[in-house]
Amino acid sequence: MKKLIECVPNFSEGNDMNIIDQITAEIESVEGVKLLDVDPGKATNRTVVTMVGTPEEVVEAAYLAVKKASQLIDMSKHKGEHPRMGATDVCPLVPVANITMEETVEYARNLAKRIGEELDIPVYCYENAAFAKKRMNLANCRSGEYEGLADKITTPEWKPDFGPASFNAKAGATAVGARDFLVAYNINLNTTSTRRANAIAFDVREKGRVKREGNPITGKIVTDEKGDKVFIPGTLKAVKAIGWFIEEYGVAQISMNLTNISITPVHKAFDEVVNKATQRGIRVTGSELVGLVPLQAMIDAGKYFLRKQNRSVGVSESELIKIAVKSMGLDELKPFNPKEKIIEYMIDEGAGKKLADMDLQAFADETSSESPAPGGGSISAYVGSLGVSLATMVANLSSHKRGWDDKWEFFGNWAEKGQTIKDELMFLVDEDTRSFNRIMEAFGLPKGSDEEKKARKQAIQDATKYAIEVPFRVMQKAYESFDVIEEMVEKGNPASVTDAGVGALCARTAIMGAFMNVRINTADLEDKKFVNDIVQKGKEIRDAAIKREEEIIKKVEQKIG
After folding, report:
1. Structural domain total, the chain
2. pTM over 0.70
3. 119-137: buried (b, 16+ CB within 10 Å) or exposed (e) per residue?
4. For residue range 395-429, what is the model confidence (pLDDT) as tens digits?
5. Is 533 a catalytic residue?
6. Could you list the residue range(s) of the whole structural domain that residue 427 is in?
7. Residue tagged active-site, from 82, 423, 483, 527
8. Is 82 a catalytic residue?
9. Do 156 and 188 have their domain in common?
10. Residue tagged active-site, from 89, 430, 432, 499
């Protein structure tokens, strides 16, 4: 699945929209990157930009933006309330989907190296990208700000990680980092009391509250041997929180920054505030997400609340999001539109027509049109998705069957596995068509010079190989679905056994059809070892599928008599 990272560069210009527009135009020029937000601040004379996309493309867009900022912004003339040390002050990369922090750190360091070497800008790597513990903290890297940079940069202690160890008067210095995704999240209370909201915030935030002698409110503040205040930690790690009153809504809220949602996810923060508020006689009425949230955070929340109800989590993505929204009251203050609040959906919006988003009639009409795609590969993937969907339906129905209450988790786990296979096959419906388009694009490349002919030939070979790999993945995923199908035939609700049986027929059809596409696409591939290996593996899957389907259908026939 597609890797996604977010980048949130801060530029030291918040008043001149002409400069800001030129910088953001560089970002928008890179295909595969979506500009999500541009937030200029006049008093701070600083603009925070948010973009998201595939890693290589985001790094390219960030580099171009940093380059343009260094050309347009003169730090020797900059004034602003916010701490800063460079034209591009900070540039953090944030893992969003299907990518690890370790991978993100590598991208950040590569970006920092390029900025330093190609633009002659001193660069410090901070947070997870830092090479030294002291440099993990951005405040340390930026200490002294721009005005103190000329002296600071020449000291051995603050030699830049990349770029020259000399003062760049115009561009200053830049901090490039890798950090966890930060979610701004507010929880609504049925009170107008800021003091009570703060009390709950202190209960849950990692920092906690100041420790006092005797009375926890009026007692003398406890200090350590250095004279610093001693704090009683709160219950949630990686959480900052404060209570405030929102006049617009007429209620108090717990305003939270979840600085690492892999440690404290949104649903855990919500439930903990519910518990602490209840202990203080206050009720949580709902919540709101400020800005965007990764899709996985919503899926995890939906599954969490379904499990609390002893219900199957093997339901569709849209259903999981709906459960999450209703469980946390995310639509209490204003409508919650997933297409506007979930990062992945924001990227997909306007990305072009997808087969998987069509209704049944439109999909059939598109298939029957003069266009060569979607073809047999996409249809094979779709038939496979329908087959495992039937088995997943049986699992979900079985988890709710009267008298089987103790089996909900067993069937829910199978339903979840089925949903995963279904989602992969639905992705491959469009990916098969995209692979065909890649071949057409490769054939359209220029072929004038010898170098162009060589590049064109290689592009055609690469695209052809991918067009073989996609239907082969369909075969693999459809074969995996037999595990779910057979389990439901044997142990699922007997009234739905024929639904699982039809699923087996679909899985076999998907595998047979996909294998035809594998074979026909191998004809023009020069890598004969790859061809022989994948055809042999394909035959093994095909033969095993024929046998598996026959065995499952026999079991279905026996059950229906």
Report:
1. 3
2. yes
3. bebbbbbbbbbbeeeebbe
4. 999 998 999 989 999 999 999 999 999 999 999 99
5. no
6. 353-560
7. 82
8. yes
9. no
10. 432
